[in-house]
Amino acid sequence: MFRKLGILIVILALLSVAAVTAEDEPQYAGLDMDLSGVTIKMANIGGGQYEAMYDAISVFEEATGATVEIVALLDGFSMDQKLKVDFATGAADYDVAWDHTSFVAQYTPFLMPLQDYFSGSELEPFSPAILDAATIDGNLYLIPRHADISPIHYRADLYSDDAIAAAYMEATGEALTVPTNLEQIDRQARFFVENGHSTLGYTLAGKEEALTGRFYEMHFASGGALFDENYEPTFNDEIGVAVAELLAGWYADGIIPSDTTSLLWDGVAQYFCNNDVAIKLEWYGWYAYFQDENACSVAGNFGLARGFTGLSIGGDAVRPSGWAGAHAFSVPATAPNPEAGVQLIKFLSSERVAYEEAQLGFLPTRGDVWDRVIADASDADNPLDRERLELARIQVGEDFKTPPLIAEWIPFSNIFYPHLQAVILGDVSAQEGLDAAAAETREMMADAGYY
User: Fold this and answer.
1) How far apart are CA 412 and CA 445, in angstroms?
2) How many domains does one find in the chain?
3) 228 and 239 housed in the same domain
4) Cα–Cα 20 to 30 A to 230, which of 49, 119, 208, 296?
């Protein structure tokens, strides 16, 4: 009798441990609806590690009885073009679409508001800042997938060398520490280049929306705004001119590469990978690449810090940099099966699927997933693996700032960046270039009905 009772207690204890373990595992969502016979069409971003998430769809299909048909897998800019055409022609016959906080404002007339399909408890794990960026005129149009934002990347050897630190103190009168504001970056970048410690002081993408975004970031970090409350251009103000002059000075003095105006993200990353750059803002997504000893000379020789605050010209309005965006899911207003599409989004944005994607290096948008990936990194061989995640969580939670939520963001960028390139190259003064961009932008905004 006692032996049987003991065995029963052991069995119950094991079952209890198993239950606790199961509850502690990240959970799926969106599997509580019978969708037998329903085909859910999805148009999504593809390429590289973006597609790993879609392997989980088989779990959703088995649990709900639905069939998921992926009708498009394109890069983000190609998806943007597809959505524009499909929405304009009424051809958006899919139930779930890729979307992004930087692009969504142009799509809102063609999307279904989602706030009535998600409870407060379902939305609670997501970053409030990202949900705010996904909400326009009171309507929630996006459910976030993953985010990106840029910390300062810096060469560790430059900041740990006592001789360099002493020379910097003698030259500037201040200690050499990892910079926290844009003026410190300017001084340090120039010092490193002028004294032969680094080939380049800084780098940034110098064309297309990438250049527009980096100017935007330096501008708002310095207390500026691209537009006022009436959508009048204000980027040609004193702050904007100061930022543009800083970039032009860096180019003229060799602080940034001579091919800056031809660079996009991969080219900028390669300079840092080569150990040629002292300091820069860079997306977290390049971290694994930079730590690859077989690919990058900078592997094991860089640190990360929170984005800089801007130029002091902005006074009390300066704030940390944090140009950011989030990939997301939306439901077209013409979706044949919108409720089924919502269920698929609940599944793909669930804790379990989001955690699996975060393990690939993407930044989570859910607090519960942040907890898990940071805990996973607690025993990492490289302490920066955990420090990176803790820093990213702060930035996504506190510094996340999207471009203006206007449908004209990309058309505006196409007007703006060639004028800024001319300033950087020294073809026009900062004031002349920004004034010309402002005049064209004002005309575009007037044509779009803003005033």
Assistant:
1) 9
2) 2
3) yes
4) 208
Which amino acid is residue 263, in one-letter code?
L
Asked whether residue 399 is domain-assigned, the answer is: no
Residue with tokens 């085909």: 39
* Whether residues 161 and 77 fall in one domain: no
Nearest-angstrom CA–CA distance, 236 and 242: 9
Distance between CA atoms of residues 146 and 138, nearest Å: 22
**Look-up: residue for tokens 């150990």?**
275
Token pair, residue 128, equals 């409030």
The rounded average pLDDT for each run of 10 residues, N- to C-terminus, in the chain (451 residues) is: 39 38 81 97 90 96 98 90 95 97 93 97 95 95 96 98 98 98 98 98 96 98 97 98 98 98 94 98 90 95 98 97 96 98 98 94 93 93 94 92 91 97 98 98 97 96
Please give the residue range of the domain that contains residue 279: 152-323+408-447
Do both 72 and 140 map to the same domain? yes
Question: Inter-axis angle of helices 351-358 and 367-376, to 10 degrees?
Answer: 40
CA 262 to chain centre: 22
pLDDT for the residue numbered 21: 43
On whether both 134 and 178 belong to a single domain, the answer is no
pTM of the full structure: 0.84
